[in-house]
Amino acid sequence: MAKLVYPRALLKLSGEAFAGAGGAGAGIDYGVIDRVSDELRQVAATGVQLGLVVGGGNIVRGATASEQGMDRVSADYMGMLSTVINALALQDILEKKGLDTRVMTAIRMEALAEPYIRRRAVRHLEKGRIVIFAGGTGNPYFSTDTAAALRALEIEAKVILKATNVDGVYTADPNKDPNARFIAELSFQEALVNGYAVMDANAFGLCKENRLPIVVFNINQPGATARVLCGERVGTIVQ
Ligand code: UDP
Q1: Residue 56 in contact with residue 15, Cβ under 8 Å?
Q2: Rounded to a whole number, what is the distance in angstroms from the first to the last CA of the chain?
Q3: Could you list the mean pLDDT of each consecutive 10-residue stretch along the chain, which spans 239 residues?
Q4: d(CA 146, ligand 1 centre) in Å
């Protein structure tokens, strides 16, 4: 097994990673979670200490619900609860595959998961448990990208892995522009100046300010996550 370049990492899985081909608002596709879990089993085998932040856009996205008349704050709480639904689904499937996991929520709901306590999260990681951070930051008007940056900094992860359905950052949308060029490596400044959407602005700002590298990569490529952790050039690295 290749040596880990990043011994502790935080992987951000967006809600769309749970919805499969259905995309945003399409609920949960258990087959897709099963595939993601197989990928995570390989990742765990590298010995990395792994935290996961899960999104909720496959169930409720606050901004969209508020456009349809919901109060924004209530809609955002609904969004945060949807991340908990995804976290429980992922936990169940990961545990069935023999992995040890804990779900920690930013909003207390102790009947089903532990409340997020930083020191406890780090202890779980040290014991080799995959920690699934649910409930975003616990605050409306934020996103799970921001939660990912925040938790990564708190647990002192060495990298954020941003799982997407494309291979990394391009100069334009590769699905729309045939001239879109793939970018293997970027500085934070270059990403900012060129307006490349790596993570949302709050999350990006946190990473930039604290020099936390972000790797944007395609989660559908088998083995990609483990390869990134072992320092292979996969996806786009922003640092
Ligand atoms: N959300 C929030 N605060 C947070 C994280 C998430 O209010 O700290 C809400 C917000 O409404 C968001 C929804 O939860 O739209 C789902 O999260 P997100 O859109 O980030 O999920 P993803 O795009 O990764 O599927």
Answers
A1: yes
A2: 26
A3: 88 90 79 93 96 96 96 98 98 97 98 98 98 98 98 98 93 89 95 91 96 95 94 95
A4: 9
Half-sphere exposure of 139 (CA within 13 A, CB side): 7
CB 202 within 8 A of CB 153: no
Q: Which pLDDT does position 107 carry in this prediction?
A: 98
Please name the amino acid found at residue 169.
V
Which of 1, 31, 39, 33 lies closest to 14, judged by CA? 33
Is the CB of residue 226 less than 8 Å from the CB of residue 237? Answer: no
Rounded distance between C-alpha atoms, residue 227 and residue 150, angstroms: 24
* Bridge pairing between strands 182-183 and 159-164: unpaired
As a whole number of Å, the CA-based R_g of the chain is 17
Q: Among residues 23, 18, 31, which one has the least CA distance to residue 134? A: 18
- Ligand 1 neighbours, Cβ below 6 Å, are 14-16, 55-57, 61-63, 75-76, 79-80, 82-83, 136-137, 139-140, 142-147
Q: How far is the CA of 83 from the centre of ligand 1 (A)?
A: 8
Coil/strand/helix, residue 192: helix
pLDDT for 194 equals 92
Per-residue confidence (pLDDT) for residue 24, from 0 to 100 = 66
Cα(91)–Cα(85) distance, rounded to whole angstroms? 10
Ramachandran class of 32: left when φ > 0, alpha when ψ lies in -120 to 50, beta otherwise: alpha
